[in-house]
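#dry-run=false #mode=assembly
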Amino acid sequence: QKEVEQNSGPLSVPEGAIASLNCTYSDRGSQSFFWYRQYSGKSPELIMSIYSNGDKEDGRFTAQLNKASQYVSLLIRDSQPSDSATYLCAVKKGTSYGKLTFGQGTILTVHP
Amino acid sequence: DVKVTQSSRYLVKRTGEKVFLECVQDMDHENMFWYRQDPGLGLRLIYFSYDVKMKEKGDIPEGYSVSREKKERFSLILESASTNQTSMYLCASSTEETQYFGPGTRLLVL
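#status=ok
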């Protein structure tokens, strides 16, 4: 079992729809969870972090965390073509010098 | 504004050559990382460093070494490049919670 797994994708949604990206992790000691966005040919950039159970909203983005189910998700409301990118889920254990474990990424395409 | 720079965006090397990839950060971060990224495999950690002269192996260290003589600079060394090391190489530096990535070096080994 991979430490961090994302829904395989690619995911295609129409403009204006909600895109739902999912991630599961295997280590119950994980404490911090991150979503990075990576445009084609570019490096990853952090878009959301979440540390406690529940929802965290930032503009059109909502991160959801359920530690009991070892599940973290990212919802993108009112998806735009500019949201088309690869989304990487990353997980950090308690004390690890900032070391992250990444999922393999989900490619999202938002079509007009 | 945070900044992580990498010495080259594109690099072409021959099999057997020694290759140096350099990464510099200006954020005074303790932690620095080297990843490679390949289609379908995501980001895989090669090595990381949590202080000057301190390093730890990541998930795929074979064929690589690193050097961190100064806090701001973390170098990745391919001792004898092979074709299976053709990849995108990403450097990152971090606080305890957030990693900041450089622009990446796309390395082609012929």
